[in-house]
Fold each of these.
Amino acid sequence: MAIDAYRTAVVTGANRGIGAALVRALRGRGLLVHAIARTAEPLAALARDTGCVPHALDVGDRAAMMAALDGVEADILVNNAAAVATGGPSYETTVPQMEDLLRVNIAGVINGLAAVVPGMKARRRGHIVNLGSTAGLHVIPGMPAYGMTKAAIHNLSQTLRLDLHGCGIRVTEIVPGRVETGIHLRLMADQAAARRAFYDDYASLQPEDIVAAILFVLDAPQRMDVTLMEVMPTDSIYGGAAFAKRAGA
């Protein structure tokens, strides 16, 4: 089912970056878009610019999500909201950081599904797009706790296809590499140093690149489900051949 046959979309993490760019693109295609984010002011500005329906709430709040989307006949759900934690070993992740990661990156996705999937099943139409991360598929130093939650989303996206088999609902996981959204700046206390470390002198992906990927999978014919799409910057790779020297060498 091409995107033009859909009427209503729900986008989380819609106040900036990929989410905001996607809201603009979907509105440009004529869809009614329910935009969800925690910060009310930029969300209200986006609503004024695009005509989307804003919902200022925490995706980790099941009751708030269910109330906001009650009666919404969503054809598209894009689980884009994400939390990150400062870099470092997994055992240095603080309790507040871990709670935030679990609430947003895992519970937030489940809550979005709970709010819209029963209606999709009843109507036998819909497309769920989960935003994963290369950190969830590959070992990337410096963000193990975040990567763990994104690995969970990879597993969820696969099992969700089993749960919805025969319902006509498509499930896609988009797995971006580094996208210049500003989220990486939260990984370091020194923002200028973070920008130098992650963005300056690098040709990172831009939010519109990931939006283009999402529109591609949404526009595919109903018989075609792009289940997993990894999108990397051309100049970026993962892996490597790090080899520690023997003690005393």
Amino acid sequence: MLSRLVRPLVLGLLGLTALASVAYADPDALWKIVHEKCVVATAPCVKVNAGEHYALLKDQRGVAQHLLIPTDKITGIESPALLLSSTPNFLADAWKERAAVDAKLPHPLPRDAVSLAVNAENARSQNQLHIHIDCLSTDAHAALAKVADTIGTDWAPLPIEIAGHHFQAMRFEGEDLGNYNPFLALAKTLKDPQTEMSARNLVVVGATFSHGPGFIVLSDIAPPAVIGHAGGEDVQDHSCLIDPA
């Protein structure tokens, strides 16, 4: 039998877990947080950028994970709005916000330990676009380090499996993403982006190539979740075990 002191603590923790489960069980939970709270008074978000139409929210999971979420209703990677020139480059914005991840860690992450992930429609729980900004897993980091300089500027199959995924990969060179929009780059490879984008995962990983900084962009078709690997988020480690030192 639980002691009088321990029992309330355990019940309290169970209650918090139940609340978290309820929040994520609602597919509109993130939209409600951003639309009804963050754009009104910022909290619980850590930042709202009205000019670029996004909010930055510390995720419930992980020590450092943050989510960049549009303040306009954009359901996910399948949304036609992401292919419009008038829509902000949310992945470029997410890269600029990586300092929020660093702020939760003992040391800043090197660029090749930072990842941005967007899950396919069937590999996500929320019906509002959210970009996961977090640590790359140690396994994914080691695998990409081996092949980084072999990745070209055109999409091609990655010669290695990462986190159960067989990605297509390409490189983009530069300190930041600038006007390069990975959503548009991916859409250009598809015969019918309006129907095909929904099945795609999209991941952007910082890289330091032999001749300078850049990015590795990864994409694949999300397999059924029952396989155990589904979202682009699989390449991340929300416990941030990667050594940033």
